[in-house]
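Most newcomers find our protein records easier to grasp once they have seen one. Sequence and backbone structure share a record, each on its own labelled line. To make this concrete, we reproduce a full record directly below:
***
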Amino acid sequence: MTRLQLFSALAFVLNVGMQRVQSQDLILNELQASNSNGIYDDFFEFDDWVEIHNSGGLLNLAGHYLSDDLDSLDKWKFPDTNPGLTTILPGGHLLIWCDKDPEQGEDHADFSLSGDGETVYLVDPDGVSILDSIQYGQQQTDISYGRSCDGCDDWVYFDVPTPAATNQSTELPAYVLYVNEWQTSNENTLFDETGEYDSWVELFNPNDFQVNLSGYSLILNSQSYTVTANEPWLTTVDANGFLVLWLDGEASEGANHLGISCPIAGGNLQLLGSDGSAIDEVEWDTTTASNASYGRSLDGSPSWIEFTTPTPRITNSLQIIPGGMIVINEVLTWNITDVQDNAMEHEDWIELYNAGDVAIDIAGYYVSDRIDNPQKWMVPVGVPDSTVIPSGGFVVLYADDDDDQGWNHMNFKLNNEGEHAALRSPDGFTVLDSLDIPLLPADVSWGRVYDAQVPWIEFETTTPNATNGTMEVSHHTVSSEWLPYPNPSKPGGAMEFLEAGFLYDSTGRLIQSWSMSSVQQLPNCEGLFLLQLESGQSHRILLSE
């Protein structure tokens, strides 16, 4: 081997070794999977982003890959045509927009991040070797998730994100919030994520920006509890919105469950900011009637009243809007080869069905997959040519976390391992339909055996925007003209039913059922209830004094 050949070989070995060391210095440093009011790109769009940090020497990422799919690690390639964009200085940061819009620039990846959680991978130019990865869970809008400091091992949430800058926490001032309503005797008003009916307190945020309660404290008599920082999606009060905190002493059930139990006697309740400053203070009263709540007559006002119909997570001046006869008819939680959306993508979907006799505009209705966030997605207004469902008609809503792809694309995805889904009327409170979706195989939907009927079954051949099948009239046990009477009715009164049926409360929980024609005693509380008869008829029953 000549001296020149030896020198060339040595240079090649050194170059390969340096590239490897430099690649190991590349890490995923911060991400934001739900950006609505943070930084914007060159097109003034608030898109998801991932930040990469270089703790070593000068390095060019050309040829490396970024992906959110373990089966496709070479999903998006850093361009090799723009070294000014892909070169990271020692100790520097590089921001990549994850917006499924690579046409907007070489720093725009062809995938978006899921606000419900997934895994992001930084991959070597060989398209196989993973240099770094981060598996994250549920995310809160406008709060980023990153390493506590550049290169640190632990990941934390940043109320003030630090894109393309050094990771560091910013302490925010204590903002104005109100203790707005509470319920000490909760028998069937509202259940938590575990199905338990516990005492709760509601906070109201009058500001035009969201407030994360991380670090805030509540003191109830001698009991004190500081809200944790590890689940901001459970502790953030939306702008001009409401948040329910559970007074169950079971902090292990989630960050919205306080290590404070509801006292038997009344007392004093204080809300303190993260700096210890007093935010609000009220006198705690436990003398309310069963299933009643106590709250401000108007949100944030100084006067207090008893509510026979509590209003958790909604304004205290709530006006009930019953909504139309719309039901969730079929859902698909794992779409591999099923129907494609308008972007030619295989996405999760929820089908709604109009079981009423007239066309219904669902604009302003709410759909959510979270019990703690009932108004997660609202059907857009202003597109009546799309949102009106004719009698006996269907509409498919795509659960793809891509609400910029059209009016019927929601801001969340479904979990094929099972979760909750609910449809609410325009008041954001009244439950029109809800279900617990079981674990489902790929391309197998969960639907009503007949349109608007029970039970629910698996469909190996899905029927989006089409009938699940209809029950013959001869199978009905009563005339379709039957109506509940009297309606409205008194709480605790009696009503005769001519067939088997089910009665649900306004949260979608089954209150009682009967297997044959009988006289049933109605719940001894005010509210709106949904009656579903064996024949498929559905009626709303209002109980009021």
User: Anything to note?
Assistant: The helical segments are 3-24, 83-86, 232-235, 384-387. The first strand starts at residue 26 and ends at 32.
